[in-house]
């Protein structure tokens, strides 16, 4: 690799992953893309190399295969400067209510796997004394709603993990960022009824991630409107909140 900083994107084939990789590459970072299907990452890697003249490495990473995490991190040719976890699974709430396997996949994909891999990188970063970790969580984790509480509970756990890790890691020169995008127009939300004023495009999220890293921001609501919306939702009395249909 070159003397430039390196950003690793876990979940590099997702729409937000691609957007984040482009934002960092445009800023001069070399890129490492990681995902379950390395072949699917090849076109993106070629595009980044041609478009931004940066080096791009590819690695296989399965967020559900936690037994492989130690060898994944230990086998990297060099420790990146930034690791961004954009991995997640929205799932189907109705199915998760009775299908334990589906509920487990949602919980593990949004909390267990991302938390464990970022925690492992945190130990390496702390030993080095520098680095930035970014976890893409969700506004759904700010308060459990009837329509997506399995997904929301996993994101709530991930946000709490990032908060605690941030407090600890800051004492050792490592920065931890929590990103809450809100509604994003991606393949994952295709077919969903999105609220226009509260919806952003994937490149907006990618730029927000880069800006948070560069400016050492702790918690980012990609759209400032979501911060206000969630403040209101969190303030609602339980007796009122549980009657709402959303």
What can you see in these coordinates?
It is a single chain. This protein has 246 residues and is of the alpha/beta class. The chain has a single domain (6-241), classed as Rossmann fold. 48% of the residues lie in helices and 17% in strands. It is built from nine helices and nine strands. The protein has helices at residues 15-26, 38-52, 69-74, 93-96, 100-128, 149-169, 202-215, 224-235, 238-241; strands spanning 6-10, 30-35, 56-60, 82-85, 131-136, 174-180, 183-185, 199-201, 219-221. The strands form two sheets. A seven-stranded parallel beta sheet has the order 3-2-1-4-5-6-9, with helices on both faces. Strand 1 (6-10), helix 1 (15-26) and strand 2 form a beta-alpha-beta unit. The longest helix has 29 residues, at 100-128. The model has no long low-confidence stretch (mean pLDDT 92).
What's the topology here?
Blueprint: E1 6-10, H1 15-26, E2 30-35, H2 38-52, E3 56-60, H3 69-74, E4 82-85, H4 93-96, H5 100-128, E5 131-136, H6 149-169, E6 174-180, E7 183-185, E8 199-201, H7 202-215, E9 219-221, H8 224-235, H9 238-241
Parallel strand pairs: 1-2, 1-4, 2-3, 4-5, 5-6, 6-9, 7-8
Helix pairs in contact: 1-2, 1-7, 5-6
């Amino acid at each position: 690799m070159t003397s430039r900083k390196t950003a690793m994107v876990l979940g590099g084939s997702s729409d937000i992953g691609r957007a984040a990789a482009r934002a960092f590459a445009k800023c001069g970072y070399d890129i490492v893309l990681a995902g379950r299907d390395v072949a699917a990452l090849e076109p993106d890697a070629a595009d980044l190399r041609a478009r931004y003249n940066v080096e791009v490495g590819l690695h296989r990473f399965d967020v559900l295969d936690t037994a492989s995490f130690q060898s994944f991190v230990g086998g990297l040719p060099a420790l990146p400067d930034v690791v961004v976890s954009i991995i997640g699974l929205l799932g189907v709430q109705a199915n998760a209510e009775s299908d334990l396997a589906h509920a487990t996949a949602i919980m593990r994909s949004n909390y267990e796997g991302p938390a464990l891999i970022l925690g492992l990188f945190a130990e390496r970063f702390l030993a080095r004394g520098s680095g930035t970790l970014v976890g893409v969580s969700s506004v759904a984790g700010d308060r459990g709603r009837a329509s997506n509480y399995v997904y929301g509970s996993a994101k709530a756990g991930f946000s709490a993990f990032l908060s605690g890790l941030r407090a600890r890691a800051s004492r050792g020169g490592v920065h931890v960022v929590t990103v809450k995008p809100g509604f994003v127009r991606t393949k994952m939300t295709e077919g969903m009824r999105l609220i226009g004023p509260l919806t952003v495009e994937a490149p907006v999220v990618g730029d927000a991630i880069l800006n948070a890293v560069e400016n050492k921001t702790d918690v980012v609501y990609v759209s400032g409107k979501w911060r206000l919306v969630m403040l209101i939702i969190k303030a609602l009395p339980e007796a009122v909140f549980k009657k709402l249909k959303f």
